[in-house]
Every structure is written in structure tokens, then in C-alpha cells.
Design brief:
Pfam family, one: PIG-U
Distance between the termini: 59 Å
Strand content: under 5%
Main location: endoplasmic reticulum
Membrane topology: Multi-pass membrane protein
Mean pLDDT: 91
Number of helices: 20
Number of strands: 0
Number of domains: 1
Family: Belongs to the PIGU family.
Protein name: GPI transamidase subunit PIG-U
Largest sheet: none
């Protein structure tokens, strides 16, 4: 009887704690929306051509005036997003509630992902609850998530769909994983590399055939759906997918494309464009073979690759995979660059606006200042990727050989 009462009291405290965290996160987003929106919506670390809500609003007004939003170089999101937000842009408060709801739902989905993943790995109930709460807090209280929600970044929508995809993935639902994968690819080409994680997770021949067949069918259906929404016109292809691949907009962001293609000579541009775009594909086969027994970690690695090597990344791209890092607690003790990666990511959040101010506003710096900050951000993510991979291989070696004294393992270090 006493144990039962203690369990009820403990559950009540956990529920109250979750509710307080949720209220705090919502309050921070509302404060950022009221007091910081003019500053945040101009930040190139948060707003890129694909996720800019200001561009989306312009596109909706062009639609209302009977002008195709894809005739110029303003709109780079899918027609379906234009129509989804048409009814909301005239109601700012309703729009804020919608994006707040998206973020709260995303955090709860991430929490569910943690619970399902840890249950599948036989974790204790106490550990599951602790880690799941930590995952939710990592998303809700992340300053990048707060800022992205405050400026109505379309990355909030993409993160919600990504979280749903991962939930279907860890639950082992082939159909829903395939549907959500297709939606992600339709919104942005780069999530197409998630097909590697799907094929590793669902290894049966029938499942793989189903994934490939359904993905193609759904993608074609979504392409035609956007075609009809765009007034039976294919010109949205040039403004979305071709725009991502051609990289003509060299507005600075946290990626590595803009700086290089500002500097490169035009007659070399096509060659290096192919090199940069193919670069993300080079790692797929080695990672898939190395992590063939851990599809979830492979998916985590692919999310990091997308955050680093897309043509127009924003800091919001890293939110989902950073929130899920507590699920890899067993690898943490093998991290070699954890302090450097974490410190670099935190410093970049502060340093990037300062470098931008020095370069663009005061003129006391140049493009190298801002690129140094963005390059640090990319390198920190690569260090995190290598740490996760190294930790997994080290743990696998320890388990396979039954090693109890890990100090006897030879480790190659570069200093």
C-alpha cells in the first residue's frame, strides 16, 4: 500500500514537473516573439531562403493577387506550404498558437521516441523516465528552438515531421516510416539519404521492395499534387529542388557553400558544385555498412550530415538530433571531443551574431570573420559525428571480446 502511494506521488511530481517545463518553454517563446522578433527574423543563422516565413507571406500575397509566386526568385518552399498557411497569416495570435503547438507536440514526440527506443533496449523504468524527460527538455529549452518558433520558421514544421518519421522508425512501422520519409524528401531533397537507414532497419526483401515502391509512388503523387496547387505549372521545380542544387543565392548562412562559391571562378563553378553536392553521398555506403546493426545511430549520423552539408542549412536543422543525444548515454564515456564539440556549438551561437555585426553593420570585419564562426559550427558537428561513431565501435569491441579492463585497449590518437 505504501509503495503504491509512493508510486502515485512520484508520477504526480513527474507530471507537474513536465507541465512546468512546458509552461516555461512556451513563456520563453512568447517573450522572444514579443521582444526579440525584429532582431531574430534577420538572423542568417535562423532564416534561410527555404524556411523564411517572411518569404512565405510574400508568396501568399502574390497568390492572392493572381501572380505566380515562383515567377521570381522570392519563394523557395513547396506550394502545399503556401496553401497550408494562407488562412493563418491574417491572424498573428492564431499563428503563434499554431507554432507553439507544433513545438510542444514535437517535444512530446521526441519523448515518445526515447521511451520506445529505451524499452526496446531493456532499460529500467526509472532510467526511461529520466532520459525521456531530458530529451524533451533538450528540445523545449534549446535557445535555437525558442528563436525558431518565435520567428515562425518553417523548420519548426520540418522538425515536427522529422520527429514523426523517427517515431515510426523506432516503432518499426514500415508504412508510416515510408510515408513520412516521402513527405520529408518532398519538402527538401536532402532527407533522401534516410533511405539508407530505412533499408538497414527493415532488412527483409519484402520490406525493402515495399519501401522503395511506396516511396516512388508517394513522391510522384506529391509532385503532381503540388503541380495542381501551382495552377498546373511545373515552374515550382526550378524554385525549390533546382534552387537547392544550383546554389545561386549566396546569402551567408551557417553552411559551407556560400563562402566557397563567392570566391570560386565562374568557369570552375559547375565542377565544384558537383563535388560539394556529391560529398554528402560519399559517406552513405561506409556508414551503412559500419552501422548495419544499429539503424537508429545510422539515422542520427545522417541527420548530422544533412545539418552540415546541405546548401542552405540553418541552426534549426540540428535541433532534433541534439535532443536525441541523451539516448546514447552508453557511448558518452568513449567521447574524445565532447567538450570541444559542445563548447564550439555554444560559442558559435553567441559568436556568429557578433561576427555578423562586425562585418555587415560596423564594417570593422570582413566575410572571413563570419565564415570562421560558421566553419566552427560545422566542424563541431563533424566532431560529434566521429565521436558517436568511435564510441559505438569501441563499445562493440568491448562487448564482443568481453574486455573488463578497457585501459588495455590500444587507441590511436593524433595530437
Amino acid at each position: 500500500m505504501v509503495n503504491k502511494q509512493y508510486a502515485v506521488l512520484s508520477n504526480y511530481r513527474l507530471t507537474v514537473n513536465r507541465l512546468l517545463i512546458c509552461m516555461l518553454a512556451v513563456f520563453l517563446r512568447i517573450l522572444a516573439y514579443i521582444y526579440c522578433i525584429d532582431f531574430l527574423k534577420k538572423r542568417p543563422e535562423l532564416s534561410v531562403p527555404q524556411n523564411s516565413f517572411r518569404r512565405l507571406i510574400d508568396g501568399i500575397y502574390m497568390l492572392r493577387d493572381g501572380v505566380s509566386p515562383y515567377d521570381g526568385d522570392m519563394i523557395h518552399c513547396q506550394p502545399i506550404l503556401l496553401y497550408l498557411f494562407t488562412a493563418l497569416i491574417d491572424h498573428p495570435n492564431l499563428l503563434l498558437i499554431t507554432f507553439l503547438s507544433f513545438d510542444v507536440v514535437t517535444s512530446e514526440i521526441l519523448r515518445m521516441i526515447a521511451i520506445v527506443y529505451l524499452k526496446n533496449h531493456g532499460s529500467s523504468a526509472e532510467n526511461i523516465e529520466r532520459v525521456a524527460d531530458l530529451v524533451s527538455k533538450c528540445y523545449m529549452l534549446n535557445p535555437i528552438a525558442v528563436a525558431s518558433c518565435a520567428i515562425f520558421s518553417l523548420s519548426v514544421v520540418c522538425n515536427l515531421i522529422t520527429a514523426l518519421f523517427i517515431l515510426a522508425f523506432v516503432k518499426g512501422s514500415v508504412l508510416f516510416s515510408t510515408i513520412l520519409f516521402s513527405v520529408l524528401v518532398q519538402l527538401s531533397l536532402y532527407p533522401a539519404i534516410y533511405i539508407c537507414a530505412l533499408l538497414v532497419k527493415f532488412s527483409a526483401l519484402k520490406e525493402r521492395i515495399m519501401i522503395i515502391t511506396f516511396s516512388i509512388i508517394i513522391l510522384i503523387a506529391l509532385l503532381f499534387f503540388n503541380y495542381f496547387l501551382n495552377g498546373n505549372n511545373w515552374n515550382y521545380i526550378d524554385s525549390t529542388y533546382k534552387f537547392l542544387l544550383d546554389v545561386h543565392d549566396l546569402t551567408p548562412n551557417v553552411g559551407i557553400f556560400w563562402y566557397f562559391f563567392i570566391e570560386v571562378f565562374n568557369h570552375f563553378r559547375r565542377f565544384f558544385l558537383w563535388v560539394f553536392q556529391i560529398n554528402i553521398l560519399v559517406y552513405l555506403v561506409p556508414l551503412s555498412l559500419t552501422l548495419r546493426s544499429n539503424a537508429f545511430l545510422l539515422l542520427q549520423q545522417l541527420m548530422i550530415l544533412i545539418s552540415v552539408f546541405t546548401s542552405y542549412p540553418s541552426m534549426a536543422d540540428c535541433l532534433v538530433y541534439l535532443s536525441l543525444l541523451p539516448l546514447f548515454e552508453n557511448l558518452k564515456k568513449y567521447f574524445r571531443w565532447g567538450l570541444i564539440s559542445g563548447g564550439a556549438l555554444l560559442v558559435t551561437i553567441v559568436l556568429a551574431p557578433v561576427m555578423w555585426q562586425m562585418w555587415i553593420v560596423t564594417g570593422s570585419g570582413n566575410a572571413n570573420f563570419y565564415f570562421a564562426a560558421t566553419l566552427t559550427y560545422s566542424v563541431a558537428q563533424i566532431f560529434l559525428l566521429t565521436d558517436l561513431l568511435y564510441g559505438y565501435l569501441r563499445l562493440k569491441l568491448v562487448e564482443r571480446r568481453g574486455i573488463t579492463d578497457e585501459s588495455k585497449i590500444a587507441v590511436l590518437m593524433f595530437e
